[in-house]
Write a structure and sequence with these properties.
The structure holds two protein chains of two kinds.
Chain A lengths: L1 H10 L18 H38 L3 H16 L2 H18 L2 E3 L4 E3 L8 H26 L3 H9 L4 H31 L17 H12 L5 H27 L21
Antiparallel strand pairs in A: 1-2
Helix pairs in contact in A: 1-2, 2-3, 2-5, 2-7, 2-8, 2-9, 3-5, 4-5, 5-7, 7-9, 8-9
Chain B lengths: L12 H8 L3 H35 L4 H16 L2 H24 L8 E2 L2 E2 L14 H34 L2 H9 L4 H31 L11 H9 L14 H31 L5 H5 L1
Antiparallel strand pairs in B: 1-2
Helix pairs in contact in B: 2-3, 2-5, 2-8, 3-5, 4-5, 5-7, 6-7, 7-9, 8-9
Classes of the chains: A mainly alpha, B mainly alpha.
């Protein structure tokens, strides 16, 4: 058992570059598998949490844009949502990575007169920024479509009541439209959040390289499956971690759902149940 | 391809391009688009079969079958599909070889798992070492196909079981009142009525399936992603058609391919949906 604590301190933060550099090669123990894959989960959580947090706001903007009557606003939002929802995330990663690799060669010199500054675009070819951007755009597009659907479904009586009470502009949006939109969209949005966590497993299998073998959970799982030639241990471990994570998301989003439904009479409150025959993604 | 392509170094402009896009490797690239379509047309019915079995099992009156079915439908919500895509082909491969080893080489007493190795006798290898290249290709593709069927079967099972639950209870009770047996109710009342409820979910699933096809690359199959990487990479002067890093262009082409595929599918599915909701007692039916 004490050796497992040793393993934990060696490999616990391996995925972000702390602790033992060399990965285990032979006689890999169960403990090492659990710790290394768990360490990789840091990346999955990092990608998904940041993409979802940032994407939430951008998605609201996209939904409002798509709903706008003004063509210059609605057209780009529609196009953005179409492109990111209509093509595979897998291809988006490859496309973005190769685009980012080309960027510096296109030239980004800024001439300040007394010196020339070259804008650093190489960060974009690193997973922590480049892949995060792709995931951010992707989840924004999916959530934007969900929010757009909910926005169209806000009951007209609510809007009329808002008008009757003299709510206008920002106030009407913030107090009436936005909360209702969120309440209607929430079950689908929970689904999207779960899918987003699952989508983070694609990052290190696409163009973005795992620098110094700092990879995510599935990167280590496939490494271990390769080394031990036994898929029956590492992949179920990844599965276990993700099941726990999914339950956590459902619990967390359920709490928010309760708050969004708080004002409704008890018999009209919707519990967070998945619309089974209408998977959204 | 063309007669003037003999010495590509002397060519320029459109002539060069016309020779470049008709090389043997590009032909393999175009063929891999057909592989994607083939996968789609085989995986969809397979997934429906898996899904139907899963949904039916989850409604079974036997507890063991029911919990197996429910577990199958539930696990896809918790575990990323990529885990299954990586796990199933290698697990199946080992399972097949293990069984063949037990049957064909029963005289070998050494254990199959020796430390970090998985050792089966030569006769149990799948495909056999002596098999030709295309047998390996077909075998790899079949394993991938099974993985797709399994994963998307679980998704489809969720959709179908939801649709079965959505059929009004009074319909089932009417069947019972007329003295239908359980299997008659299932075949004559439940199944014909559930499709309209299943349609939105199944259309959505079709789109997810289209967008999952590039994952073939993860399974080591020479699919469109493989060829895009291969052809787009930097080609130095030693190649017949030298060019800089063109991968972004190739993946751009793939983006356009998928965008048109999903756009086309969406418009067809919208038509079907309008058609099927005609005369139904729903908002869409009344509006139309």
């Amino acid at each position: 058992m004490s050796s497992c604590f040793q393993t934990l301190s060696d490999y616990g933060l391996r995925s972000i570059g702390y602790g033992e550099r060399l990965l285990p090669k032979a006689d890999i123990t169960l403990c090492e598998q659990f710790v290394l894959i768990g360490s990789g989960m840091i990346w999955n959580i990092y990608f998904a949490v940041l993409a979802l947090l940032l994407g939430f706001f951008f998605a609201t903007v996209l939904a409002l844009g798509k709903n706008s009557n003004l063509f210059p606003f609605s057209a780009p939002c529609r196009l953005f949502i179409f492109i990111f929802r209509g093509s595979p995330l897998f291809i988006q990663f490859f496309f973005a990575y190769d685009l980012f690799v080309l960027l510096p060669r296109l030239g980004f010199d800024i001439d300040l007169g007394f010196l020339v500054v070259t804008v650093e675009t190489r960060w974009l070819t690193k997973a922590w920024l480049g892949a995060l951007m792709v995931l951010f755009f992707n989840t924004s597009a999916y959530a934007g479509e969900i929010f757009y659907g909910a926005l169209r479904a806000v009951p007209s009586q609510d809007l009329e009541s808002a008008d009757a009470f003299g709510f206008t502009g920002i106030k009407k949006f913030r107090r009436i439209i936005w909360p209702t939109m969120l309440r209607l969209a929430w079950p689908s949005y929970t689904n999207e959040a779960i899918f987003m966590f699952h989508a983070t497993t694609l990052v290190f299998f696409t163009g973005f390289p795992a620098w110094q073998q700092k990879g995510d959970a599935i990167y280590y799982a496939s490494y271990l499956a390769d080394k031990t030639f036994n898929p029956f241990v590492p992949y179920p471990i990844v599965g276990l971690y993700f099941i726990l994570l999914t339950l956590l998301i459902i619990g967390l989003f359920g709490l928010i759902n309760r708050r969004l439904n708080k004002h409704l009479p008890t018999n009209e409150r919707k519990r967070l149940r998945f619309n089974k025959y209408n998977l959204i993604r | 391809m063309f007669s003037y392509c003999v010495d590509p170094k002397t060519l320029e402009g459109l002539m060069w391009l016309s020779c470049y896009v008709t090389t043997a490797k590009h032909m393999s690239f175009y063929f891999s688009f057909l592989v994607v379509m083939g996968l789609l047309s085989l995986a969809a019915p397979l997934a429906m079969a898996f899904g139907f079995a899963g949904a039916t099992a989850s409604r079974s009156t036997f507890r063991i079958i029911r919990s197996l079915g429910k577990g199958y439908l539930a696990m896809i919500r918790g575990i990323p599909d990529i885990v299954f895509f990586l796990f199933i082909p290698i697990a199946l491969d080992q399972a097949f070889e293990y069984l063949r080893h037990k049957v064909l080489c029963s005289d070998v007493t050494e254990p199959i798992r020796q430390g970090n190795d998985f050792v089966v006798c030569a006769a149990a290898k799948l495909p056999l070492n002596t098999a030709s290249e295309w047998v390996h290709d077909i075998y790899g593709f079949s394993l991938a196909l099974l993985a797709f069927g399994f994963v998307f079967g679980a998704f489809a099972g969720n959709v179908l079981s939801g649709a079965m639950a959505a059929v009004p209870k009074s319909q089932i009770e009417t069947g019972e009142a007329y003295g239908f047996s359980q299997s008659q109710i299932f075949r004559r009342i439940l199944i014909p009525q559930m499709w309209i409820y299943a349609l939105p979910g199944l259309s959505n699933l079709w789109m997810i399936l289209i967008k999952a096809t590039p994952l073939l690359f993860l399974l080591g199959i020479e699919d469109i992603v493989y060829w895009a990487k291969e052809l787009g990479g930097i080609k130095t002067g030693v190649y017949e058609y030298p060019h800089p890093d063109w991968r972004a262009w190739y993946f751009g082409v793939l983006m356009i391919f998928y965008l048109s595929l999903t756009y086309l599918s969406q418009s067809v599915l919208d038509k079907i949906s309008t058609r099927l909701s005609q005369g139904q007692a729903t908002m869409a039916g009344k509006a139309g």
